[in-house]
Amino acid sequence: MTTETTALNRYNHLFDNQQYSAIAEYIAVDLRTPRDSVRVSDCMNEITNTALSLCQHSHYADAWLKLATFCGQNAVSVPTIDVIYTYLLIYQQPRDNRAEEFEQTAKALLKAYAASDTLKAAVSCANGIHGWRGRMAYDLLAASDYLVQTAVQLLMHGNLSYICEKLQSGLRRITGALYEGVRHSERPELFNFSTTYFPTEQDRQ
After folding, report:
1. Residue 46 CA to its chain's centroid (Å)
2. DSSP states along the chain
């Protein structure tokens, strides 16, 4: 018997249709779409794939990440994520923590996307403030937005070059904010971070 067949048999044995159907209803409410819509079906397919992976099916090793990304990007609520997590625990075996990885990643993405929306609004408001304090605040808010975008890409296991690009944009904004403090504040020494050390390739163990 193949590993895939064993995994499928385990999944079928543990499958709980009542919980599965309840999750679909939760998701339909969160997505504001009918229960039989394609978007709900897509999410339920990812849940099934994640459950199969927890049964050690080799074809779905990264299914938990795809599911977490879907939940984060589509504003699936925390209560629904909790229900999905509880369902996945039915299938999780000892020394496997992917159900927990799904739960924490999905919630982190959900909050990060919400924070990014708020930060973009704050950046827009701060853009019109006069004086060095306003300009510094603008740069710091913009930096925060770039850093949140970087964190989102890291959580999604995104492209490293794109992650680096967002991180560099954030650091440039922080540098711009420090210039404002050094050039215009009454205590320029407080904004002198020239001794700050950034890791290099030589720090790799």
Report:
1. 16
2. --HHHHHHHHHHHH--HHHHHHHHHHHHHHHTS-TTSHHHHHHHHHHHHHHHHHTT-GGGTTHHHHHHHHHHHTT--HHHHHHHHHHHTTTPPTT--HHHHHHHHHHHHHHHHHHHHHHHHHHHHHTT--HHHHHHHHHHHHHHHHHHHHHHHHHTT--HHHHHHHHHHHHHHHHHHHHHHHHHSS-GGGG--TT-----GGG--
> How far separated are the first and last CA of the chain, in Å rounded?
42
Chain position carrying tokens 């849940």: 47
Q: How far is Cα 31 from Cα 130, in angstroms, rounded to an integer?
A: 41
Choice between 205 and 84, residue whose per-residue pLDDT is larger = 84
Q: Is the overall model pTM greater than 0.85, yes or no?
A: yes
Contact 70, 120 (CB under 8 A): no
The string of pLDDT tens digits covering residues 116-145 is: 999 999 999 999 899 999 999 999 999 999
